[in-house]
Amino acid sequence: MKLSFQIKLFISLVLFFSGLFVLLGIYYYQDVSRQLYQEMSTRAKIQAEEIAIIPNLRKAVADKDIPAINQFMHQVVLHSDASFIVVGDNKGIHLFHSAHGEVVGKKLIGGDNDAVLRGISTTTIRKGGLGISLRSKAPIFDDNHQVIGIISVGYLTSYLDTITLSKVINIFIAAVLLLAALFIFSWFFTRGIKKQIFSLEPREIGLLVRQQKAMMESIYEGVIAVDSELRIEVINQAARKLLGLSQPTRLLRGHPISEVIAPVPFFTREVILENDTHDEICRFNQLTVIASRVRIMLEDELQGWVITFRDRNEIDSLSAQLSQVKRYVDNLRIMRHEQLNRMTTLSGLLHMGRYDEAVRYIQAQSEHAQELLDFISARFSSPTLCGLLLGKAARAREKGVALAFDPLCEMARPCRMLGEAELISIIGNLLDNAIEATQRSPLPHDPVEVLILLNERELIIEVADQGIGIDPTIREHIFERGMTTKRSGDHGIGLYLIASYVTQVGGSIEVSNNAPRGTIFSLFIPEMGDQARPVPTLEEQYYAT
């Protein structure tokens, strides 16, 4: 039968403290006995020496006046707690014995009289006529300082043991009461411990810890658990790898999160106490991640947070691949649709015999496409960006909207502060929003104006449409996740991603009205960290004009 943790802990505490009390009792008994013997030795010596100097007794001993000695010593015995008092002469013969008067005239026993007869006081433990005793002997001197007798004051060891035992019994009673209190305390203490560990046995806790460790290391995402003071409690291998940390987990435990991850708004106390968050784009140690934060609560008390994060580049890679495939499909569909329309038109002209018009039609179509291709390929060095702009232009034409590229457009090199994936996402989302807003405006549709200019100081992206504009009721929230003005589909993420990418690199966004209608989105992304333009407040970003 296996005992529970509570019973084992209770029995262990009881046995430990019981053994401790036994050892302390033995030590106390020996210490009390030693102190008592020392105290009684001193008392016996003082009594013997004081009695030995009493003049009347000295005269009676010198005269060996036994009746006088008896009369005087009986008075002394009445005021002493000694087990016996003995008076002897300088020959070692009894002159008085407080307990056995019949030994008067007999030899003193014990074999400890020689030193006393030489004038030296002694204290010994010897066996006498009453048994083993602690006795102190002092010499009696006459006026010529000659030893004329012996005074012996003794305490039986049985009497001393009785005193010691009575003290130990009192301590034992107190120890028993204390042990009983300890039993009660141990029981409630073990119950409290069991409650704090959720009624789990140590073996189960050990198994749970090993499972948790294995689970943490098997998670592909980075996981960090922090306490209420934002000190690291747990960090898995994936988190250390993503953050570029070489220290083992045990050395990172207890350190503030700010020592591991450069301070970002994601970890500020005001933000972290406000609410939990999921799939927020952040920047941890020069690494762009998608992070989530969930608080740990125990009995309605905040214990800390669990932060999970993953490299956004990996997700972007997969997303880019899917988006690229989708763009290819869309572009092929658009091109197929346009080519079918052109072929139908050309076929009709040929059937009608209008050969000159057919030739002019072919030349016009070829010149327009080539002109756009030449402009984009000459102004932008990134093939991916060129493909995006050509695809968006073709898609806009299919929807009855034209893209008008500003003659100042130029991006001859990659942006230092912004990756190509982020740039494609920003421009693509801005163009999609502008095209859809223009579609929803009354006919005829005005073109969407596009400016993409990279200079030494900053990257400027500006998309202006003359669409339906932004509803004032949601203008303050357009950059929030899930906020959209579109009527159908999976929307509400585009502007949120744009704002995340731009603010992470210290850029700014200005949203203004486009006369007579529509909206202008202006993005300013710094090229150099020390030359970055000031980042406006949210209110300035929303209401910039």
Automatic annotation (TrEMBL):
Presence of the UniProt keyword Metal-binding in the record: no
Transmembrane among keywords: yes
Major subcellular site: membrane
Domain PAS per the UniProt entry, residue ranges: 215-263
E.C. designation(s): 2.7.13.3
Enzyme class: transferase
Membrane topology, record value: Multi-pass membrane protein
TM stretches of this protein: 7-29, 168-189
GO CC, any one term: plasma membrane
SUPFAM superfamilies linked to this entry: ATPase domain of HSP90 chaperone/DNA topoisomerase II/histidine kinase, PYP-like sensor domain (PAS domain), Sensory domain-like, Sporulation response regulatory protein Spo0B
Catalyzed reactions per annotation: ATP + protein L-histidine = ADP + protein N-phospho-L-histidine
Record-level Gene Ontology MF annotations: ATP binding; phosphorelay sensor kinase activity
Residues in Histidine kinase domain copies: 422-529
Keywords: ATP-binding, Cell membrane, Kinase, Membrane, Nucleotide-binding, Phosphoprotein, Transferase, Transmembrane, Transmembrane helix, Two-component regulatory system
Record localization: Cell membrane
PANTHER family hit by this protein: SENSOR HISTIDINE KINASE DCUS, TWO-COMPONENT HISTIDINE KINASE
Record-given protein name: histidine kinase
Organism: Pantoea phytobeneficialis
Lineage: Bacteria, Pseudomonadati, Pseudomonadota, Gammaproteobacteria, Enterobacterales
